[in-house]
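Hi support team,

I submitted a single chain yesterday and got back a structure, but I'm not sure I'm reading the C-alpha cell output correctly. Could someone confirm the output below corresponds to the sequence I sent? I've pasted both exactly as they appear in my results page.

Thanks,
R.
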Amino acid sequence: MNIEVINGVMVFIIGLVFGSFYNVVAYRVPNNMSIVFPASHCPKCNHKLKFYELIPVLSYIFLGGKCKVCKERISIFYPFFELLTGVLFLLAYLVFGFSFKFLIALIFISILIIVSISDIKYYIIPDEVLIVGSISIIVVYIINSLVNDISLFNGVLMPILNGAASFALLYLFKFFGDLLFQKESMGGGDIKLLFVIGLTLGFDMAIVDIFIAAFMALPFSVISLIKNNNNILPFGPYLSLAAAIILLTNLNLDMILNFFIA
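Hi R., thanks for writing in. Yes, this is the structure output for that exact sequence:
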C-alpha cells in the first residue's frame, strides 16, 4: 500500500481519537471538572463505559446511539465532532504533509474543535483551552525558528503581534457594538479566540475570518431573531469554521484581491 495512503489513514484515526477526547474536554472544562477523573460514563445512569464503548464513531453505531445500560439517547453531536476532527486532521496532512506547518495546523484545529463544541453547548469559550493552545503554537514557532534559522522577530514575535492586533480589532468592534445596541454585542471569548486566529493565520486573514464568519452567521442570526425574538448566537463556531477554511485552502489576501480584480 502507498505510504501516503497509510500515513493518511493513520492521521485520520488519530484525529478520531483526539476528537473523542475533545468532546470530553469541551464538556468538562466549562463545568470546572477534571478531564481525567472520573472515567467516561453515562451522565444519566453513571455506567462506566467499557473500552469497546469508547471507540470513536463505531461505538455510537454499534450501540445504536444509546447507553448500553439505561438506553438513554446519546447525542449525534459526539460522533459528528469525532468524525469532523478526523477529517480535518487528514486534510491538514494532505495540505501540509509532515512539517512544522502541519503541527501548527493540528494544534489550531484542536483549539477550533474544542471551543466550537463548548460554545454551542454552553455559550462559553474556555480560557484554559485558548491559553494552552496559544502557548503550544508559540512553542512550535520558536522551535521552527531555531531549526530553520528564522529570526525570532519574524518567526515568533510577528505572529504574536498579529494575534494582539486581531484581538484589539475585535475588541473595538465589541466596544462600538455594545454602544450601538446598548447591550453586550459579542462575548469576550470570541475576542480571545481571534488572538489565536491572528497568531496562526496573520492579522490580514483574521480580518477576512471575521467577515466570512459574519456572512455565514447572518442567516442563522435572522432565523433566531424571528423564532425566539432574540439573536443570541454562539459566534465562536462560525469564527472557527471560517478559520479552518482559510487554513486548509491556504487562502491569502492576494488570492482574494485577484478574485475581485480579475
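A quick pointer for reading it: Residues 51 and 59 are 9 Å apart (CA to CA). Let us know if anything else looks off.

Best,
Support desk
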